[in-house]
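As agreed, record minuted below.
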Amino acid sequence: MTNVARIAGLVPDHLEPKTRKIVLEDYCLPVDIGFHDFEIGSPQRLFVTVEVWVEAAYFAAEDDATRAWDYDFLRTEIGRLAEGRRFNLQETFVREVYDIVAARRGVTKLRVTTRKPDIYPDCAGVGVDLASF
């Protein structure tokens, strides 16, 4: 008997989940990004975080991989985007990532954040944040 079966019906209604979120945090990849002469053609480290809130129907309720929201998709598509072209601005890169994820079924809220960690020696990074809320 699973733990879930033993406690079925015991969780109070007010403690039922209200949101479901998938997170890809600080995915670090080289991106040809920046508009300064010294940046063009010299890929830089870019950290990407994607937070995706999904409808209950798209969030696995059982331990079944076929019911899970495909977060491998996030990593694969972001990697393809980064390899596929150069970007002048983080804002442009973030918007393209945002649009790719927002077009997926079941997404109710979305936040995409990027950060270039190697710009200033006295800062953890400079970045961009785009969210639906």
